[in-house]
Amino acid sequence: MTSARRPLTAASTATPAGAPARPRPWTLRGSGGSRLDWRLRFAFLSTVWGFSFLMTKVGTQGYAPFQVTLGRLVFGTAVLAAVLAVRREGLPRGARTWGHLTVSAFFLNALPFSLFAYSQETIPSALAAICNATSPLWGMVLSLVALPEDRPTRRRVAGLGLGFLGVLTVLGAWQGFAGIAPTGTALALLASLSYPVGWIYVRRNLAGSTHSNLSLTTAQLLLGTVQLAVVTPLFTTFPTSFPMVPLLAVVGLGALATGIAMLVQYGLVAEVGPTTAQMVTYFTPVIATVAGVWVLGERLSWSAPVGALIIIAGAALTQSRPKGTGDSRTVARAGVTTADAVAAPVPAPACGAAPRQP
User: What is the pLDDT of residue 340?
Assistant: First the structure.
């Protein structure tokens, strides 16, 4: 005897009595109000994050790096705050939460965004994107020290070795690193290292938070904006002119590549899981390289794209999980999923399996 499966209804999917309702992730929708196919949103996210390095490069041609970063955070925060208001959600409460978000804002937003902006004064945007792709490699190294539950496997160790071989290829180690701007490259690599430091901090201190990803991320970007608003006047002077193209690049960097991109990312993680969503990370340096060469006319030696592919392959291995490990793998076994870890944002780009934001 067989029985028909009952269709899901509002009653059957309702939140249990007494449990707080969890807001649905915001996502892009078509003209008829229907949700856009996840593949289109995936392509949008890959493209926007790929072009974020180009926009940073163009922005620094008209404004100081700190001003570019401050503008990025201002416009990104404005987008998230608008969505937060539309959804009638509030910012997180509690001094402890705000204290942890202050630290995560520094390591996940203020510091890496500024370092990437300064690095692109001397290195191509494509090289900055390739350096950004090393973030999962740094994350694995740090997690082995700071997160004992993240046990290494042969595959992940092999991926780590392969990834750093790719870094040496990009830098042209056999040529004595000739042709590479050492300061700019070091700043970009330091920026990529800042992300996993922030992710690990989030995993240790914000795992299991009852606040939504949108609320936490809006608060984090707001705190990052405040940090840059304090620092920027100390190192720069107010612009005497506002060149339009660099200004539009900063607006796009903040509104599209930071605000809207993070909202799209959360929707992707919720719909297809972090394992699929994190694949954006591997398309970003490819798109950034094409954009830098095609739009900005940047020149790269053969070792840069070859090394980038090796880095991507190594990063993919370090993110691999044993068969049977699903997308809902908990972070640090603290009651928070990988998607939740993105909250502050461990996108990002992340330490473990979460996608990340460049």
Answer: 31
The HSE-up count of residue 246 (CA atoms within 13 Å, CB side) is 18
Contact 114, 65 (CB under 8 A): yes
Q: In angstroms, how far is CA 88 from the centroid of its own chain?
A: 25
Structure tokens at 311: 């880095």
Angle formed at CA 14 by CA 260 and CA 81, multiple of 5 degrees: 25
Residue 337's φ and ψ, nearest 5 degrees, are -80, 170
d(CA 273, CA 228): 33
- For 59, phi then psi, to 5°, come to -60, -40
Which residues in 172-194 are b (16+ Cβ under 10 Å) and which e?
Answer: beeeeeeebbeebbebbbbbbbb
What are 171-210's pLDDT values in tens digits? 776 665 566 788 999 999 999 999 999 989 998 898 878 8
Q: Which residue has the tokens 């954009």?
A: 291
Residue found under tokens 């180690």: 173
Q: 313: buried, middle or exposed (CB in 10 Å: 19+, 13-18, 0-12)? A: middle
Q: Where are the beta strands (DSSP E) in 109-188?
A: none
**In angstroms, rounded to a whole number, what is the distance separating the alpha carbons of residues 60 and 54?**
10
**DSSP string computed for 27-75:** --B-TTSPBPPHHHHHHHHHHHHHHHHHHHHHHHTTS-HHHHHHHHHHH
Percent of the residues in the chain that have a pLDDT greater than 70, as a whole number: 75
> What pLDDT is attached to residue 28?
53
Which residues, in sequence order, are bridge partners of residue 337?
330
pLDDT in tens, 113-160: 999 999 999 999 988 998 998 888 888 888 877 776 666 778 878 888
Residue 311 has pLDDT above 90, yes or no: no
